[in-house]
What we know:
- The chain is about 75% helix and about 0% strand.
- By secondary structure, the chain is mainly alpha-helical.
- The chain folds into 2 domains: about 15-235, Growth Hormone, Chain: A (Up-down Bundle); about 260-450, MFS general substrate transporter like domains (Growth Hormone, Chain: A).
- It has a two-stranded antiparallel sheet with strand order 1-2.
- Strand 1 and strand 2 form a beta hairpin.
- Helix 2 (about 80-100) packs parallel to helix 4 (about 135-160), helix 5 (about 165-195) runs antiparallel to helix 9 and helix 10 (about 330-345) packs antiparallel against helix 11 (about 355-380).
- The longest helix has about 45 residues, at about 10-50.
- The radius of gyration is 22 Å and the shape is globular.
Amino acid sequence: MTGIADLAPLERAQEQKAWYWYDWANSAFYTTVLSVMFAPYMIEVAGKAAGCPEDLDDAASCGNTVSVLGLDLAAGSLPFYLTSFATIFSAFLLPVVGAMVDRSAHKKRHMAGFAWAGAACGSLLFFMKDDQWQIGAVAIVLASVLAGCSVISYSAILVDISTEEERDRVSSQGWAFGYLGGGLLLAVNLGMFLGHDAIGLSSGMAVRLSLLSAVIWWAGFTIIPFVRLKDRPPVERLEITGNVFDRSFGQLWRTLKDLRNYPMTLTFLAAYLFFNDGIQTVIYAASTYGSKQLGFGDSVLIGTILLIQFVAFGGALLFGRFAQKHGSYKPILYGTYAWVVIVVLAFFLPEENVPLFMAIAVAIGLVLGGTQALSRSFFSLLIPRGREGEYFALYNACERGTSWFGTFVFAVMFQLTDSYRPALLALIVFFVIGAFFLLRLDPERGIREAGNAVPSTV
């Protein structure tokens, strides 16, 4: 008689722990660089090139322009044009990258390769100083696009290292780990920036070192999942001829064509397109709303940013535990309702009331961490096996390709009303439309149509 222990759960657990580290690694780039420090510093540098007065308190209010590929763009708007360009370009590129990932036996190499290339491009931000905005413009576009490419492989690996029953827990812990890592480095960098005089640095050098630290963090911690994760052969359902690019574009066309065979997957993508746009716009507008409408200073806003980051760590874990008992569909739907309540409460916030503002920030952090983590794991259940890269590319394309629409609505409402309160309130429509599509979704049907096992709780 012989007995062989099933070591698969233990091996998966080891890989899952390694997988979490990439969330920890890349979150530094998204928080320190894209969310907080790049835009204000780029505006300052571009403002010098545009000839804005050095004694101007807010360089964004300077109407002078710089020339970008023959276009005259306001210095204060330049970083937003750059990130918008990177976002739209990514929406077209990511599905092709996803198809390549699905046909490769080396997902972790794609993940790490794109990450290290993105970090190398991002390191050029350190050389953006004085009036030399051009190197920063090239660096941020390339780094942002490459970061998106790396996340495609990272998300596809989730399906390889977890069963359907484990998916919510693994995704939630990954998001939580990312919020913690990104928040820790952001706290250090904000401390360095606020106390730059005490440590003998100029404000510009403090920002440049912060930007550099984020990409070094990104590149360095990527080594852990690269070493510890395993490569697996691709799951190819159909044999495709031609070179890798022919196979990739062929797979992309088939996926778009066959998406109609997975109506629940398409329904969730439509829901995610709207409610995620609302989430991203609320996060983007929070600091503007706090400073311009409610009259808070930089110290309050910086504290709020860090509070949201660390509360989101707990929110991801909390929603993950709830999903283990009740499934991921209901928490996502209830989270969408919660975003409506948050926006309404923020609309009625009195000016200069710090405790209430912080209370709203706590609510944002709790719901933010949970909805993002569970959306990823729930969508993974709606993907046909072997097409994870391309479907996650469509998922990210929905996020990136339309993420400008919420900010556009916010800007138009402010222009029409000259107040940020109705501009914020208008964002409710994104959550309402998202909830409408979620209510039309049959999660068990969608999972079965994709050929996946239905978890005990959905």
